[in-house]
């Protein structure tokens, strides 16, 4: 069936222009890809407070922060806050849950379709601001005009606040909460909970 084939193609990312770049990345590259640019403002017992400007590399098809990136932030920061409680290890994940309550936007909804002849400003459809568009990036990726990526300028990106709290750190189980909020509006973007099994220290 045609619709099943389209599903397969959307999931199986082969023969893509970026395939070589992805395969050449070093091992354990997921954390720096997601965490690059995160700023830590406070670390105390049971609490980590950060801010993060949503970068274009973490967008989904709707031009908002990808849900997988949000889950990764919950994973990493939920583990990190366990260390603030004096734990020597953060153990292994038992469960991660995320409630997505709002979108972390980049300051626009869409752009008017056009073919770029260089780095140009594009008019935003929904808001009276502009975004920029890299001709070099799209040409290297072999994108057709209808497939080209539109990147927001830094001044239009949304900054979010991330608060990670240790809810419980026992001998065997630790539970942390991670909340993402829009700094501009105060709206909660996502709430996550990370449960970890702490490997018991040997008494020998």
Please explain how this structure is put together.
The chain has five helices and eight strands; from the N terminus they run αααββαβββαβββ. Residues 107-138 and 149-155 have low confidence and may be disordered. The strands form two sheets. The chain has a six-stranded antiparallel sheet, covered by helices on one side. The protein has two domains: 18-106 and 157-197, Hotdog Thioesterase (Thiol Ester Dehydrase, Chain A, Roll); 107-153, no CATH class. The relative contact order is 0.19. The chain has helices at residues 2-11, 19-23, 30-35, 67-83, 135-140, and strands at residues 39-44, 47-53, 92-100, 120-123, 130-133, 159-169, 173-182, 188-197. The termini are far apart. A hairpin with a 2-residue loop joins strand 1 and strand 2 (47-53). It is 22% helix and 30% strand. It is of the alpha+beta class and 204 residues long.
Q: Can you tell me the CATH superfamily of the largest domain? A: Hotdog Thioesterase
Cα distance spanning the termini: 61 Å
Number of domains: 2
Strand tally: 8
Strand order of the largest sheet: 1-2-6-7-8-3
Shape annotation: globular
In the CATH hierarchy, what is the class of the largest domain? Alpha Beta
- Second CATH tier, the architecture of the largest domain: Roll
| Oligomeric nature of the chains | single chain
Task: Tell me the helix content.
Answer: 10-25%
Question: What characterizes the major β-sheet?
Answer: 6 strands, antiparallel
CATH-assigned fold name of the largest domain = Thiol Ester Dehydrase, Chain A
Q: What amount of the residues lies in strands?
A: 25-35%
| SSE class | alpha+beta
- Total helices: the number is 5
List low-confidence stretches.
107-138, 149-155
What is the average per-residue confidence, as pLDDT, rounded to a whole number?
Answer: 77
- Indicate the radius of gyration in whole angstroms: 20 Å
The run of helices and strands is HHHEEHEEEHEEE
């Amino acid at each position: 069936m045609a619709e099943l084939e389209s599903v397969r193609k959307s999931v199986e990312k082969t023969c893509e222009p970026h395939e070589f770049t992805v395969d050449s990345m070093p091992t354990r590259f997921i954390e720096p890809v997601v965490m690059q640019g995160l700023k830590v403002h406070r670390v105390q017992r049971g609490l980590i407070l950060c801010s993060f400007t949503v970068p274009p590399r973490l967008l989904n098809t709707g031009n908002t922060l990808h849900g997988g990136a949000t889950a990764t932030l919950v994973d990493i920061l939920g583990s990190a806050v366990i260390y603030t409680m004096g734990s020597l290890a953060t153990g292994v994940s038992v469960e991660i849950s995320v409630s997505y309550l709002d979108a972390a936007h980049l300051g626009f909804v869409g752009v008017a379709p056009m073919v770029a002849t260089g780095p140009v400003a594009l008019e935003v459809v929904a808001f009276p601001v502009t975004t920029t568009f890299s001709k070099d990036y799209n040409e290297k990726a072999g994108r057709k005009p209808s497939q080209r990526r539109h990147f927001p300028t830094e001044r239009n990106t949304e900054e979010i606040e991330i608060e990670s709290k240790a809810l419980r750190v026992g001998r065997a189980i630790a539970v942390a909460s991670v909340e993402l909020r829009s700094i501009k509006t105060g709206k909660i973007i996502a709430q996550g909970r990370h449960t970890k099994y702490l490997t018991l220290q040997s008494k020998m």
